[in-house]
Amino acid sequence: MVAVEVFFPDSGRLEIGDTLYPSARALNGHGDSVAAQIFWTSLDTGIVAVDDSATGMTISKGVGTGRLQARFGGLRSNPENVFVFARLDSASVFTGVDLRDTVTVSAPDSLSDSLSVKAWAGTSGAPGRPVVYTAAIYPAGATGFTFVPKATVLTDANGIAVARFKFKAAPVPDSVVVSAAVKRPNGSDVPGSPVTFVVEFRP
Fold first, then answer.
1. Residue-wise pLDDT tens digits, 45-102
2. CATH 3.90.480.20 is held by the domain 3-85
3. What is the pLDDT of residue 95?
4. H helix runs in 13-105, sequence order
5. What's domain 90-202's architecture?
């Protein structure tokens, strides 16, 4: 064996209290995997603690970047980063944002007001969290739209994500219901998510 290759679910991103189940394989000189019992060690036990060295079951304990290492005999992997975030409590519409916006279609491109959502961890906004915007159009069939700057936006330093709905081409829909979902690292929604907005279009 010449190397140990490591794999983390969800890109090694989790929240405090979550459990990580990493995997690894030993490789020979041809790059082929071989049967081997892999053991795991945490190099930052205050952030991630290995509960079972044989399976790699790891518990997240503190916010920050922790490192895990896999080994087989005297062969060790490179330390691999695990990113631990504060646990999200809820999602809400950012203060001062109207849930309904009317867009006048008087130009080739028409933009909604800001569709702002805040992710909360306790009493503080949670930065760096993905918010996924999707649209349901009424009546169905319109395709000339997009989100600005894009459909998935990371929350800023205050825990706020902002997107706008952009209409680009006919037919003009009567309205669009925009859902904004705040996601945990494992892809599940937080309480209060998704938040919904209604964008109405007028000639």
1. 999 999 999 999 999 999 999 999 999 888 899 999 999 999 998 877 665 666 776 6
2. no
3. 57
4. none
5. Sandwich (2.60)
Residue 32: both structure tokens together: 């082929």
Cis check for the bond before 108: say yes or no (omega within 30 of 0).
no
Q: Which residue type is seen at 156?
A: D
**Is residue 84 within 8 Å of 16, Cβ to Cβ?**
yes
Distance CA 119, CA 89 (A): 8
CA dihedral (17, 116, 160, 169) positive or negative: positive
Common-topology check for domains 3-85 and 90-202:
yes
Q: What is the pTM of this model?
A: 0.78
pLDDT, greater one: 29 or 181: 181
Please say whether the dihedral angle defined by the alpha carbons of residues 183, 184, 187 and 190, taken in this order, is positive or negative: negative
Backbone angles phi, psi at 12, to 5 degrees: 70, 20
Chain position carrying tokens 């189940």: 21
Task: Tell me which residue of 182, 129, 123, 122 sits closest to 157, measured CA to CA.
Answer: 129
Higher pLDDT among residues 192 and 101, named by residue: 192
CA-based nearest residue to 119, from 84, 151, 153, 149: 153
Domain boundaries, the chain: 3-85, 90-202
